[in-house]
Amino acid sequence: MRNLKLQYCKEQKTGVKNARQLLLQPDLDVVYAISEDKVYAINSVGEGDEVEDVKTVVELPDIVGAEFLQLENVLCVATAAGEVMHINPDTLASSEGTFCDVGIECMAWSPNQEVVAFVTKTKNVVVMTCNYELLGEQPLDEGLANDQQFVNVGWGKKETQFHGTAGKQAAKQSAAFKPPTDVESLPQDICISWRGDGALFAVSYVAVQVGRTFSVYDCEGKLQHTAEKWNGLQPALAWRPSGNWIAMPQQHADNKSTVALFEKNGLHHREFQLPFDLQAEPVQQLHWSADSDILAVQTSTADEQQHIYLYTIGNYHWYLKQLLSFKRSDPLALCHWDNRLGEQHTLHVLLESGKHYTYRWNFAVDCQMHSSSVYVIDGKRLLVTDFSKAVVPPPMSQKVIELENCINHVNIYSFMVFALDSERVLHAIKHNEQKVQLLPDEQMLQSQLQLAQLTKCRGHYFLATQVVAQHTRVLLIEASFNTIRSYSLLSSLRINGTVNALTVDTDHAKFNTCYVHTSNSGQIYELAIDFEAKKLQPTRCFTQLPQPADRIELYLYRELHTSIDDFNEIRPAATIVGFRAQRCLHIRGNDVHFDAEGVTSYCFAGEYLVYTRLNTLHFVHMRDGREVDTRNIERGGKLVAHAGNERLVLQLPRGNLEVISPRVLVLATIKFMINHHVEGKMISYIDLMRKHRINMNIICDHNLSEFLQNSARFVESVKNTQLCLFISELQNEDFALGMYSSNYEPKELQYPPEYSVERKVTIICRLFCQILKPLKGYKESLIMCHVKLGQLEQALLLIWRKYKCSPDEAEQLFKYLLYLVDVNELYDIALGTYDFALVLFVAQKSQKDPKEFLLRLNELKALPTPYRYFKIDEQLKRYEHAVEHLAACGEQHYELAMDFIKQHQLYRKALTCYQQQTEFHQRVCVAYADHLRANAQLEAASIMYERGGQLQQALLSARHTLDCQRVLLLAQRAGEESLEQVANSLVAPLQQQQRHLEAYELVKQFAPSDSEQPLQLLLEGRLFGRAIHEACRLEAQGATDIMANYVQPALLDYVEILENTLQADRRLFVNYKQRLLDIRKRPATANDMDVVGDDIDELDLLSDTSSMRSSRYSGSQSSRGSGKTFRSSKNRRKHERKLLSLKPGNPFEDIALIDALHNHVTKLMQPSQQQLVRDTCKALLQLHTEDERASQLQRLYQSIVTQLQDALDEIWIPELMGGTAQHLTGPNIDFLALRKEQRYALITPLKRFKPQLNIVDWQFEMLQ
């Protein structure tokens, strides 16, 4: 489906007459032209007609072949006399490579230049290495050995084969070979052609018994195959570089002219017919492009008219894509395909006068951007297929437009097609296939240069390019549709460099611009077209591509809500797409910057650019250059066209077509339909969603605010069945941000106020219920809404009400409900309505045995109404409703109610239901209190016992909670023991729970004012500040030496204990720190690092946040046997204890020490410890005689704090805290640091960092 598009035709003047061969260097700075007796070196060509630098490298008579040897940087030239010379093109020094005394007919080097093949004057094939060491030599007409002859085993009879359009009669026709009668009259030319890999080569020659034939040799000169015998073969020979076919022209007995394609074994494979007679126009040469895509057929006629036909193959059909004709006044000398990387579609043509024409083509699909019609060139025929109407596989087409001459170029503009043929006649073809011929004027016919990039712009104007030397002329051409139908050149603009791509703004009616791309620099220039002055003006350099492109296209992004008038008045932002075949795709615009590599094809589809890679399809949003989605396709598939709406047409490597509907384009089509609110289109896009399995949640998620506002209109516009399907698919999920986020951005979504996605189904279904209730014909949708809301009872009642007036319709509604809900569940719901008629209606549709459910219903009917309701609720496990109905049954069911409440733990509901029955209410309270006390909720149990009148049980529960005030209150109400006794019974439990201050206040409340018991409680609780206050109070009442006898000794004893504890903690900290430093000083060895796993299986102890795992941790699990794949919490704690063991010699001793030091620092520096030291020093100061002891204690703790702060940096070093992470990856990885990191990963993440010290104001300045 692709055409050959001429990128440029460049004219250069070399001054070399009658060239016969062209040699290209990889960089193309120098071109070597070989004539019959000279070798010319042609440097870069200047502007105009002047030849800048052409020099003669060597003069040798009768040159039969030449090759530029890249490795040696020499020219290898062979002459008919047998000389093979090596000439250095820089120094012009020459040396002899080899010599053939019998003379040389032709020479051909292998593509890899490792082997060279000669055919001598004596018709011998000689194969030599690049150093001219003989590999093989044998006569050209030598036959195959007996074991190499073809053997017919009787397979594939001609009568059973398919013969296509030739019909069954072709099976009866005989193609017997007839030996030629006069072999000497045949052309005696010999031609050599190598296969692309250099393993085989073929030689075309004239055999005495056969006539024109060919033989196949390997790279060592051994004969492998001879050709099948055929009449009418001509001398030209070309082996396809890919290796599958050998091409030779053939004239058949029925005057049919073809190019025969042979396999490497010499058997005829297939052929394609030529549009001319080989007798009148014989083939001079056949040339395959380096990538095997294009076959060039060079011909000449008796009147010296010369042509080059370019063929491509697709789906086993050969298309004639280009026809180049050359004037008799300056005939064709040679043509040569460029074999450089990226230049495979470049053809070099030299004329006899010395002019050098360079043709550069690229493959492209001729399809207008906003159309789905594809135009394929096939000689004189233009094959047209509109993929929006029919998908016709090539080489067939929907319709055929035939012209008088071969078509070279097609351009589509609006509803017209413009075709330029090989005679430079421009054909304007309208949509009704009416043709108008536009002839070129004399000025356009003077030059041999072809019009490249011919593009229609506004009005009757065209743009084209012509390249001369180092500059390009952009031509403005006017077509005349008057009496004289022709086209002529109006003006031209000269641009430095080679313009190989051009695109025009054809969609915009007011602004006239075009963009040209230069292959030299990769720059894209913007040109303004002044139709009034009829000239072109450069505007600016639009952008610079990273790499030169083969093709550019203009894309004007327009928002969907923009009208046509606004589009014409306000120019949208221009975006240029540059594409280089099989390489890169570049998108450049004001806010768009996108690059992709390995791209094989692309096309526009609405607001998306779609491109393919080897086996994937990608979608890029043209508004912001964001790649939104990717999907897999068949390997090698390429895009042909966008077939409208959601369909894409791809051509697979075999040539067949495949039409797909990617989800991105389907969603874009649905999005467009929803945005435009076209009446009648709602049903269309719902059907489209069903066809492509698009979740219907996107209908509301597209714009939820607008959907809710227009929900009534939506309901009325769709069918009942479609609405049911929509409601059934509703989910509490935002599909615009989830499954279909490729087509939506969060900023464009709109939601109603106070909306949450968890309430989406509820909001929509409730709104639909309000809309659907008064409507007729939407009962199924209303039922679906109730089901989605979980209102099955309302759905059943709706059907039951309908049953009373229309039983048949109710039957249908109930059948629909049965598809949604299990019938047994519906039976239970019907039973829960207490309407036995409805229950029978549902039961008849279920699989229940009538003997069972009728018996049960009769039993229920016989019961009193409240008790009946209770039994139904109990059966349906609606226990709270059952309690309500049981409460209405009266006193005779109190025992049943109590058992039921206890069984189902319905105490709170029962307290509400039995609030008026005081006696039973108290029983429920007591039962609830027993339940609470059994669950260790003693405070709540005490309250419930109190409500139930069980004061002793309430007091007992309160005692266990040590709620002193409540205990005293309940004891006072009970009156069974004195309050002082109750208070004294609480003192010991309070002391056990370290609640000394509460015990002191409780004793003080009942003890005599001169009692020393409160003071003893304070001293036991080490509340020395409060104890000093209490001692002073007692001494004020007359007691003596209370401070000296009680408070001071207890305080001094505690200070001594505190100092000893702090000293012991300091010594332990110093010990741990020194052990850690000693371990770090030891040199790390492999055994130290690899001990992980030998002594302890620490894999389960790795931190969940650690990403560092050695291969030992992650790669060797399968080799550790098939043990348990999990660890219980008990085993895990055991391993943690083993890991954190402080025993010397533990493999993880450093990790255990870090853990212990972190705990030690946290303990010593916690704010409660600081406050304890401060309170103790304050108490000592209040004694007035122990200032020195207070100062000693403060200095001790201060020294410990300073020592801890100074040691933090020694313990928590940077590598422990992850400070060397930059050395753990990359080429310069530090393996020692990596191993340490793996060990440190075993530490709790919090303890890998220094403890956060919270220093409070704990010191007294007077003690410093």
From TrEMBL:
Pfam families: A-sol_ELP1, Beta-prop_ELP1_1st, Beta-prop_ELP1_2nd, HB_ELP1, TPR_ELP1. Residues 1127-1137 have a biased composition (Basic residues). GO terms for cellular component: cytosol; elongator holoenzyme complex; nucleus. SUPFAM superfamilies: DPP6 N-terminal domain-like. This is Elongator complex protein 1. Residues 867-1027 form the ELP1 TPR domain. Residues 1107-1140 are annotated as: Disordered. The keyword Cytoplasm applies. Residues 1041-1211 form the ELP1 three-helical bundle domain. Residues 376-640 form the ELP1 N-terminal second beta-propeller domain. Residues 1107-1123 have a biased composition (Low complexity). Component of the elongator complex which is required for multiple tRNA modifications, including mcm5U (5-methoxycarbonylmethyl uridine), mcm5s2U (5-methoxycarbonylmethyl-2-thiouridine), and ncm5U (5-carbamoylmethyl uridine). The elongator complex catalyzes formation of carboxymethyluridine in the wobble base at position 34 in tRNAs. Belongs to the ELP1/IKA1 family. Residues 663-860 form the ELP1 alpha-solenoid domain. PANTHER family: ELONGATOR COMPLEX PROTEIN 1. InterPro entries: A-sol_ELP1 (IPR056167), Beta-prop_ELP1_1st (IPR056164), Beta-prop_ELP1_2nd (IPR056165), Elp1 (IPR006849), HB_ELP1 (IPR056169), TPR_ELP1 (IPR056166), WD40/YVTN_repeat-like_dom_sf (IPR015943). It is found in: Cytoplasm; Nucleus.
